[in-house]
Amino acid sequence: MSVRRQFPRWSSIKPLLGWSWPTFRKRDRGLEKVLTIPDLRELAKKRVPLSVFDYVEGGALQEISIMRSKDSFQRVEFHPRVLRGVTSVDLSREVLGKRTSMPIILAPTGYTRMMHYLGEYAVAASAAKQDMVYALSTMGTCSPSDLATATPEGRKWFQLYLWQNRDQSRDFIAQARDNGFDALILTVDTPVSGQRLRDTRNGLTVPPKITMKTFLNMATKPRWWANLLTTPPLEFAAMRGYDKSLFELAKLIFDPSVTLKDVAWLQKEWGGPLIVKGIQTVEDALEMKKLGVQGIVLSNHGGRQMDRGTTPLELLPEVKKAVGDEMEIYIDGSVLSGGDVLAAVALGATAVLVGRPYLYGLMAAGEAGVDKMADVFREEMENTMTLMGVDKIDDLRPEHVRLREH
């Protein structure tokens, strides 16, 4: 048998080429190659100084809590159903009475403009586009009023540390209320700051000091430093006027004397939805249920406070069984893929909070990097749910997943 040959045509060759003609359109080729959150992490590591990357990446002491959180998600096993006719997937989820595009909340993080000169502004803008909730931190480098002015659209929550000076706490609450923040997150796992050895060894300060070590690293990250030096100085925006060192500020911010009575006080002062972040036992979850808070975050602070803390994903089923549906349950810590989000929802979480993933995106490419983070999570969730035979994220149940022993 013979096959007639023909002269190759461009229309046949073009699809086989792994390159394209150069264009004048500005492109971020590194970002275009990102397929996963770990890819985004590696890109971020290349684009910021080591001390900045380590601040995001690191945890307390030996970082055992971080390793255990990652391990818990690696032990997830899905139980897919077949022949379910899933032709489209609905990822939307009700969070505090309103639908959001995905069960992902961008967690409060400190020093955010250290990662990228646009900091919270870039994150909030991306969250608004993606129809996700963004939580601004007390330790943020942008004030609630400035953020609301720059990005009036989108849902915003405000994270609060109860100061020893309750009048200052009242001021923060008023800032959040007056600028349209629709929920308050009270962080309760910080009676003192955790011992983060990477930051100590790197000599991390805010703003960064140009020591010989940082100068040598600076030489390889000129764009990051140029942006830092040509934009307004880094500051804790909610604490303007406090001319104190980080150590002195920490003593003002973290109050080891806070008790359950202070939660009740805050409910009255705020008057809106309250979420308590840093719950690590069933007993404390039940205490929050008694107080009538609207939500809790099962969290070991991303492994940044007490090392060997409770692993949120492992605690989740017990807490869900104990508190039922009377308040929303969120978890955080080492949520690094769409499958991680789905596992948490199936085991009883309303949504997850992510911090490091969007900070990787921010360090890598600013707002475009945060957009990429959201795209990665969305694509992974849609693909996994289709393979699981589930077309609505609200339909995920414990029978869809289990945690393998090892």
TrEMBL record:
It holds the Pfam family FMN_dh. The lineage of its organism: Bacteria, Bacillati, Actinomycetota, Actinomycetes, Micrococcales. The active site is at residue 301. CDD domains: alpha_hydroxyacid_oxid_FMN (cd02809). Keywords: Flavoprotein, FMN, Oxidoreductase. Belongs to the FMN-dependent alpha-hydroxy acid dehydrogenase family. FMN binds at residues 108-110, 137, 159, 187, 277, 299, 355-356. Its cofactor is FMN. GO terms for molecular function: FMN binding; oxidoreductase activity, acting on CH-OH group of donors. Coiled coil: none annotated. This is FMN-dependent dehydrogenase. Residues 29-406 form the FMN hydroxy acid dehydrogenase domain. Glyoxylate binds at residues 55, 161, 196, 301, 304.
